[in-house]
Amino acid sequence: MGHAMPTELSVNLNAIAMLRNRRDLPWPSVVHFGRIALASGAHGLTVHPRPDERHIRFSDLPDIRSLIDAEFPDAEFNIEGYPTEEFLALVAAHRPEQVTLVPDDPSQPTSDHGWDFVADAALLKDVVARLKGQGARVSLFADAEPGAMAAAAATGCDRIELYTGPYGATYGDADAAEAEAARLGATARAALDLGLGVNAGHDLTVANLPRLVRHIPSLAEVSIGHGLTADALEFGMAATVRRFVEACRSGTNASPAPDIVADGH
Ligand SMILES: CC(=O)[C@@H](O)[C@H](O)COP(=O)(O)O
Ligand SMILES: NCC(=O)COP(=O)(O)O
């Protein structure tokens, strides 16, 4: 499989928002850290507003939109979530370049599975058409199931986002990681053959990105929050984003510094 472009990094700000929400204070600021991320090589910013606003708050969205419009006009805003009318109103108001639809129940601690593209076909076709009509690229959260990609494409979506939680959970076990990455790679090939673009996200790290990118050379974008924020505590935000950008390129023509592959969490 050839690869034209390096994988882009979208920095998920949910974990920064969660730290901020521990106090009734404005720091750490999602706009400040979003600015550092974009200035350090990230292609975009991701938020996943949940109905209880435990991470990103709805009131954060106008400030992130303004940051991109005023200072980083080539960057992308990616808003993720379950398509309730409240979520769709947030999307309409903040004009993200990409919307990632995720089948989250409000009680879930975090996202832990992709869509059932057959059972949810009617909902997805309707919402995908609505969002594309507003000018957004639409990506659908998907499990590593090559056989599900035809039904995903039938929704009219532009891309899938591979749910990489099970891959992230293989840390420390190279054989298990290889098996998961192969399954993700097969799913990506099925999606690409149907004309879909492929994103990926959940529990990605500097350490596990190179293997993923090797298995999916045409991976368009990864969105990363938890592991990246953890590394930012150790290395600082700017250096961390640069390390993740390097790791995104590690499976492609551009080689990362050797320590990026050997080190990391
Ligand atoms: C869609 C997805 O995979 C998630 O990783 C999500 O965006 C993370 O959200 P939280 O940080 O709110 O758990
Ligand atoms: N879409 C997945 C995402 O934004 C990343 O989440 P995380 O698991 O890295 O926090």
From TrEMBL:
Keywords: Cytoplasm, Pyridoxine biosynthesis, Transferase. It comes from the Bacteria. Its EC number is 2.6.99.2. InterPro entries: Aldolase_TIM, PyrdxlP_synth_PdxJ, Pyridoxine-5'_phos_synth. It catalyses: 3-amino-2-oxopropyl phosphate + 1-deoxy-D-xylulose 5-phosphate = pyridoxine 5'-phosphate + phosphate + 2 H2O + H(+). One of its GO terms (biological process) is pyridoxine biosynthetic process. 1-deoxy-D-xylulose 5-phosphate binds at R50, H55, T110. 3-amino-2-oxopropyl phosphate binds at N12, R23, D203, G225, H226. GO terms for cellular component: cytosol. The record marks E161 as: Transition state stabilizer. One of its GO terms (molecular function) is pyridoxine 5'-phosphate synthase activity. Its main location: cytoplasm. It is found in: Cytoplasm. Homooctamer; tetramer of dimers. Catalyzes the complicated ring closure reaction between the two acyclic compounds 1-deoxy-D-xylulose-5-phosphate (DXP) and 3-amino-2-oxopropyl phosphate (1-amino-acetone-3-phosphate or AAP) to form pyridoxine 5'-phosphate (PNP) and inorganic phosphate. This is Pyridoxine 5'-phosphate synthase.
